[in-house]
Structure formats: structure tokens, C-alpha cells
Amino acid sequence: MMNVVRLNAYAKLNLTLDVTGKENGFHMLDSVVVTVDLFDRVVLKRRKDTLCSVVMHGMGSEGIPPEENNALRAAEAFVSAFQTNGADIVIYKNIPIGGGLGGSSADAAGVLLGMKRLYGVPDMGGANSLADRLGSDTKYLLTGGLARMRGRGDRLEFSAAEPEMHFLVLCPARGVSAGDCYAEFDRQGSVFSPVTEKAFALFAKNDIAGAARYCSNHLSEAAKALEPCVGTALSDARSFSPLGASMTGSGSAAFALFETGELAAWAKSRYRGKDRALVLKSVYPRSIKSKKNPYALSEGEGEGE
Q: How far apart are alpha carbons 11 and 82 in whole angstroms?
């Protein structure tokens, strides 16, 4: 066991997002997701009691109330489930809040992985069970990579393929509330055709150009109705003639998918809008060999001291 653990909590993009229905009041999804090289830095320090604390820095996260902090919920749930001591946690955020990039779930997944390493808990199944209760993306982000995510995020099918993808991601200053977005989606009552199954099969074959034609999001119209900046970001992303473009999650961030990193960088250099613009690429944490990346190691092992 270690006294301090440091790790990266990666963001994700929803390359597709189909809303397939509702069960027990929850929307069911079918989505192709991939992790990208944008991350929050999570630092955990052992405590001698069972208390947990989380301090946030960056991206306006300092004002998040403790009762709404997913990272704190993850730490407290871990202590309760595994009867360990607590931890003092510091999170340095770089993933925009309210952008649909999975930042809150990434932080929760990072805390679960860090607590496992901090206290030498080998039970991955227990961590998965906790993740299911901490947000729809949390279980997926314990592993990362290219996956098909169904239901409430609890049904995961990972791909062995690791296609190289390059993105321009536009992040409006205003976020979109996921709850408000789903409510607006229900109010609009629109019906869309599902595309995730076709897209996932093509991405798994490394046919990025073919798969990119299916990049879409059933929540886009709802998000645009709530926040016009989403429509602007989507229009700007599509203006560079990418392979595909869409909104991620419930918004507000939009992405454009390109053949190469050079094209993504070119698009950023030509972008004249006001949104934060990021050039990102797909990242497959399971295959990263650096000891500084805990996803590369079995059973949540990570950098520590």
C-alpha cells in the first residue's frame, strides 16, 4: 500500500448516441465511446480515519457543493464498501464542466482506481459495482478505450481495435444540464433511426471514414433548443469538412473527426469562433505502457509513493 497515488482521469467522446427508450424512468442509450487525451489529474493521500475530502481546482470546479461532487461520493462509497480508511483528494481539472465529455464520471472512476491502489484492494468487481451507481460513464471510464455502451452505461462491449482518431473539439462556455436535456428530448418527442450498431462494427474494423458517416447524437436538437451555443459549435465543427461531426453526451461540446492530426490542427488554426478549441486524439489506456498511467496496469495499480 502507498501513502499517495497520482493518476490521470481521461475524458470521452460519444461518437454516436442513440436514445433507445426508457426503463424505470431512466433513458436507455446505445453509444460508441472513445477516450481522448484530455484528462483531470487526481491525487489521493491516505488518512488515518475513515473521512474523505475532495478539493477541486480549475474550470470553475471550486464551487461544486460537496453533496454534488461525484468524486467525493466515489471515495465515501469505496470506504463503506471495502471498510478502508479515507483519503484527502485533490483534483486538478482540465475537462470542461457541462460539456458532455464525462469529466465528473472520469473523476469518480479515477478516485475508485486510486483508492484501490492506495489500500491494496484487488476486487475489480466491487469497483465496477460501485461505478454503476456513480454515473452512466463511470464504469466505462474505469477502463477506457473504444467501446459500445448500452443501457444506463452498465452494458459494455469493448473493442480490441485501437483506431487512430483525431479531433477538433469545440467547448462552449455554457454547459448543458443533462437532466434538462433529456426532459427537452422527451418534450420534443422526435424519433430518430439508430446508428450505433453499424458505426461500432466499422470502427472495430478500423474503417474510420466509413464509421464517421454515422457520427450523430439523438440529443442534439434538445441541447440546441436549450443552449443556442450548441448549434453554433456544431455548425463550426462541420464547416471544416471533417469525416464526421457531432455533439458529445448531452452537450455542449461538439467535435469534428479528421483523418490526421495535421488536419485537426489546421482546422483549429482556421477557427475564428469564441469557444475553447482543443485538438485531441483517441487514447487507449489499456495499451499505454507508461508507469505513470494506472490504466496500463492490472488491478488499478498506478503511480504512487
A: 27
Continuous segment of H or E residues that includes residue 216: strand 216-217
pLDDT for res 183: 97
Q: Which residues of the chain have pLDDT under 70?
A: 1, 286-305
pLDDT in tens, 221-268: 999 999 999 999 999 999 999 999 999 999 999 999 999 999 999 999
pLDDT of residue 63: 87
d(CA 11, CA 104): 9
137 is catalytic: yes
Q: Which is catalytic among the residues 40, 137, 236, 275?
A: 137
Give the C-alpha separation, 283 to 251, whole Å. Answer: 21
| Residue 180 burial (CB count, 10 A) | 15
Which of 12, 45, 139, 224 does the annotation list as catalytic?
A: 12
Host H or E run for residue 35: strand 26-46
Report percent pLDDT > 90 for the chain: 85
Taken in order of first residue, the domains within the chain and their CATH numbers are 4-160 (3.30.230.10), 166-281 (3.30.70.890)
Looking at residue 66, its pLDDT comes to 82
Work out whether the CA dihedral 300, 5, 111, 123 comes out positive or negative. Answer: positive
Do 101 and 9 touch, CB atoms closer than 8 A? no
Q: What is the pTM of this model?
A: 0.91
236 among known catalytic residues: no
Cβ contacts of 202-208, under 8 Å, gap ≥ 24 = 203/15, 203/32, 203/34, 203/146, 203/159, 203/161, 203/163, 204/146, 204/159, 204/160, 204/161, 205/161, 206/161, 206/163, 208/163, 208/164, 208/165, 208/243, 208/257, 208/259
- For residue 135, give the amino acid letter: G
At 122 the pLDDT is 87
What sign does the CA torsion over 82, 83, 84, 85 have?
Answer: positive
